[in-house]
Amino acid sequence: MPKTYSNRNDADRVVELLKESANRLAGRVIKVMEVCGTHTVTAQAAGVHKLLPANVKLLSGPGCPVCVTPAGFIDQVIKLALEENVHVMTYGDMIRVPGVNDSLDDARRRGAKVSVVYSVNDALERARKNPDQRVLFLGIGFETTAPATAYAIKTAQKESLKNFLVLSAHKTIIPAMEALLEDPETAVDGFLAPGHVSVIIGSGAYEPLMKRYQQPCVVAGFDGTQMLMGLVRILLQIIAEKPAVENVYQSRVNREGNRSARELIEEVFAPAGSVWRGLGEIPQSGLVIRPEFGEFDAGKVFDLPQPEDHDRPGCRCGDVLKGIITPDDCPLFAKACKPSTPIGACMVSREGSCSAYYKYRNAGVEI
Questions:
Q1: pLDDT, tens digit (0-9, with 9 covering 90-100), for 141-196
Q2: Which H or E element spans position 154?
Q3: What pLDDT does 9 receive?
Q4: Is the pLDDT of residue 261 over 90?
Q5: What is the DSSP string of 175-190?
Q6: Which domains does the chain have, with CATH numbers?
Q7: What is the pTM of this model?
Q8: DSSP one-letter code for 171
Q9: How far is 34 from 308, CA to CA, in rounded Å?
Q10: Which residues are paired to 58 by β-bridges?
Q11: Region of 85 on the Ramachandran plot (φ > 0 left; ψ -120 to 50 alpha; else beta)
Q12: Helix (H) or strand (E) holding 270
């Protein structure tokens, strides 16, 4: 077994170990997928891909919550903003994500009330100060942001803020990982698990999935060396033929996660099927507002159906999210599709694969 290192800042040694481990797997291409938008950005900004041995591939998966929100969701929100006199409040990246035809930014130019907020508390405060205006907050994100939305809904109930509504597009990451493992087009050899989500759900949450599919899974932090350490541990598991869940981000992630945050999610939300851009509907992967809080659920108030998935002609954002292609394999990348003129959601969000590839395409190694 190759020597391991405890000094997480010694990038040169970690790179050395990565190459040594990859050499022991010569003749085999190892595909590892990260399912975290921050990992996607770090990998590009720090030049992680440039340090990988030729037989080790790091793929970007559906780790950007804005990117996996289907176009039909955007269309539903635009219709509510234009026809139901609601004030839409959302995080910044969502404003430019395209629906079938338009974005929320386009709707705003046509007179819709759409505002960017930094916190769901901003939406609560807007509802308090404008009791005659319905305020619609878009619940976007994985287990990391869902607790804040859940707390806001409980606060609205406590304060009887009848004009506060949430349209939930919150999703959970493990069902998506299972869908990828079931998809023969993806064929990954291991996962670099997300740090932020793992703080909430704990590293132990991945154990049933990994035992069932016998695939390595390593929780890693957000600097380049942490990611490389995670890749080393995955390669060592493959060499030893002992797949398991490991955690190299022990400074922030434990096995149990944040129980209080999980209980808050479970109190307000229930798991349900959810549509993911590029992946279709994944069972039990969405978080819908429970009936006890139904008066704050915009989906129920306006009787909205399950949103549909859609990519614009020529856009291969869905294939990027599944790790089937890299952004530069898309014929629109850096041509018709740029951050200034995005065609797909992956070019809009700061955590999107296409956006990260474009922004750091000429970057060097900073590890």
A1: 999 999 999 999 999 999 999 999 999 999 999 999 999 999 998 889 999 999 99
A2: helix 146-159
A3: 52
A4: yes
A5: HHHHHHHH-TTT--SE
A6: 66-172+259-301 (3.40.50.11740)
A7: 0.93
A8: B
A9: 26
A10: 32
A11: left
A12: strand 269-276
